[in-house]
Amino acid sequence: MGWLRRGPRRDGEDAPRDPEFAYFSRNEAALFRGRVRETFAELGLEVTVYADHVIDDRGRRFGLTNLAAVCHQDRRGPRVWPGLIRRHVELVVRAMDGPSALDALPPERIRSQLYPRVVNGDGLDAGSFGYARTVAPGLYEILALDLPESVMMLTDDALARLGSHAQLRDRALRNLRGLPVEGHETVRDADGMCFEVVLGDSFYTASRVLDLDGVARRVTGLPLGEHGALVALPFRHQLAFHPIRDTSIIPALGAMASFAATGYEDTPGAISPYVFWWRDGTLTQLSEHDEERGDLRIVVGDDFQELLERLIAQGPDRR
């Protein structure tokens, strides 16, 4: 799971791009959507195909964003798309047609499999997830039920059947804290820049930003200090952080901004292309996309600027 990984570009950059999935050429996107339609048909479902989703004849909506990113990221190319699409569609159809896990599982089993998820707000239906808590601009915390073959994001109606949201969230956070750290890498360069990356196959790896101090203790042996940390969560399987203690924050900030933007691009489960300042559980955005120049820029408020000036005044590397 290399942090600089990019998916293959099968057609040249000069080929006309698909308006919805820019990593596909128009021809590749047509091939992808055609195969999606054929796969649903093979399973007995006729669907109407739209740019980023399909709708079957019963009015059920199936999103294509993650599946398109999975196909794009697979380095074997379009020859393996039929198998990838088939497995995904079969899984989705089984989940939709089978009995709801909320009806099939006993209450305590459900509570033991609850986890909080930090997700990008794009495509999140505010009418169904009114309880969602804002984590940062465009990012929300919801509750999810972890199942053997899928993850069920719980709507307002689902939560109403399970009990108090506050109690359910408390249990979900305890479950999150109990997950193992699957992988940890320290990214560094010859000039001394470094930051930590927690990674794994769990759909909740990036969501561990909700327990960042606990994660920092587990992977570095030290708690986060009074100044907090830089943090990035580009997609669901990666969480990066740099404890703020001295002027090493300056090179780390630029490197993590690039890390976040690269990891977010064309990735299944994308969350955010930006880097944030974590302080006492609150996230403040520190990078953004410059629309005019087409690249990233660092943007800091008065509080962060004051912190930088204090760190510079105290001198370098006081860890």
TrEMBL record:
<protein>
    <submittedName>
        <fullName>Uncharacterized protein</fullName>
    </submittedName>
</protein>
